[in-house]
Design a protein that fits this description.
The chain has 356 residues and is mainly alpha-helical. The protein folds into 3 domains: 60 residues, 434 Repressor (Amino-terminal Domain) (Orthogonal Bundle), CATH 1.10.260; 109 residues, Serine Threonine Protein Phosphatase 5, Tetratricopeptide repeat, CATH 1.25.40; 142 residues, Serine Threonine Protein Phosphatase 5, Tetratricopeptide repeat (Alpha Horseshoe), CATH 1.25.40. The chain is built from 18 helices and no strands. Helix 6 packs antiparallel against helix 7, helix 6 packs parallel to helix 8 and helix 13 packs parallel to helix 15. 31% of the residues are buried.
Length: 356
């Protein structure tokens, strides 16, 4: 709720063509007092406010410019999230007021915890804010049984609590939480950097290797999805660039000259890139892409490899087979699948020419 008395009072006075001196005379105050009202430096007492409202033929609420905000839990939680996103430091005061009003709302408690965690680094006495964040995350854990918000879950809450402990310098406690809650490798990267920070390099390397494999999988989805979007929108240069990015990244994980599972992914990227080059008028480049795709596919199909442990930077010793989203297709069939999807007769002829 905001008080806009200064703005409203000045507007009413000017609307009636009255000077500050005249207003001072009417209400038996000094001109200096009127100036302070309009500058927002002071506000009349309640008795005088009622006289002013009566003088201007308005209500006290209108004179004060009160805006009644929607303080339902969902709206209040959204407001706290917006203040966090916009780095509005007054949000912590708002959070504490919200906590007084709704101490048992997991949404309010969770958003307040996130706010204290995010803002902690902005203060010299950051430990105090990390501590408050940890306290709130613990409260959120106790409130989990009542949670109906799909955007809040135990993984997010425990992850936040671990970060709060990390900020307070309680690294081992942070790591313990993350290791106990590392469902599906959610915290692999955080565990990796945390363990490396305290000298547990071998353990860190394993977590980071699994995190890298997860990142590669996500990058494949990103590149493939973006390429489809750009092709649909006719943004050929953007499509070319995202495919080149994918190819370059895949190549960076090669160790030696043996096949890796990413070669099969390249057999999806290269024919798509060939199709774009052809549309851009670069027929020779399109031919090069298809030739490279065929050579890579034939080599891969002779010695298929789905073990992510063979990737560069990966320190996983045991067999680590990746989930093949192409199903049981051979690498050559992957190329033909993309060509069939693109339905470009000229591109099909170029592909046929690579057999000769």
């Amino acid at each position: 709720m905001k008080n806009r008395f200064a703005t409203k009072f000045r507007a009413f006075r000017k609307e009636r063509g009255l000077t500050q001196e005249k207003i001072a005379e009417v209400f038996d105050v000094t001109v200096g007092a009127v100036h302070k009202w309009e500058a927002g430096l002071s506000t009349p007492d309640i008795g005088l406010l009622m006289e002013i409202a009566d003088f201007f033929d308005t209500s006290l609420d209108t004179l004060m410019g009160f805006d009644l905000r929607d303080n339902r839990v969902s709206e209040l939680a959204s407001r706290l999230r917006h203040m966090l996103d916009t780095k509005d430091l007054t949000g912590m005061k708002e959070a504490e007021m919200a906590l007084l009003k709704y101490p048992h709302s997991i949404e309010i408690v969770y958003e307040s915890a996130c706010m204290y965690l995010a803002f902690a680094t902005l203060f010299k006495d950051s430990r105090k804010y990390y501590s408050r964040s940890a306290e709130l995350y613990k409260t959120a854990i106790r409130l989990l049984p009542q949670n109906t918000n799909p955007k809040i879950n135990d993984t997010l809450i425990y992850g936040g609590l671990a970060n709060a402990y990390f900020g307070m310098g309680e690294i081992n406690k942070s790591i313990e939480i993350l290791e106990n809650r590392n469902v599906g490798g959610t915290f692999n990267s955080i565990l990796g950097i945390s363990l490396a920070g305290i000298g547990r390099y071998d353990d860190a390397d394993i977590y980071l290797s699994y995190s890298m494999i997860d990142m590669i999988g996500k990058s494949i989805n990103l590149v493939t999805g973006k390429a489809l979007i750009y092709l649909h929108a006719g943004k050929l240069q953007e499509g070319k660039d995202i495919l080149l990015f994918g190819l370059q990244m895949n190549e960076s994980f090669r160790s030696g000259d043996h096949t890796i599972f990413l070669d099969k992914i390249d057999c999806l990227y290269l024919p798509a890139l060939a199709g774009i080059e052809l549309k851009l008028g670069n027929k020779k480049e399109a031919q090069k892409c298809l030739k490279k795709a065929r050579e890579m596919a034939e080599k891969f199909d002779r010695a298929p490899d789905s073990d992510a442990g063979n990737l560069r930077f990966c320190s996983i010793k045991e067999n680590c087979n990746t989930y093949d989203t192409t199903g049981d297709k051979t690498a050559i069939e992957c190329i033909e699948y993309v060509l069939d999807f693109l339905k470009d007769k000229e591109l099909d002829k170029l592909w046929e020419s690579t057999i000769k």
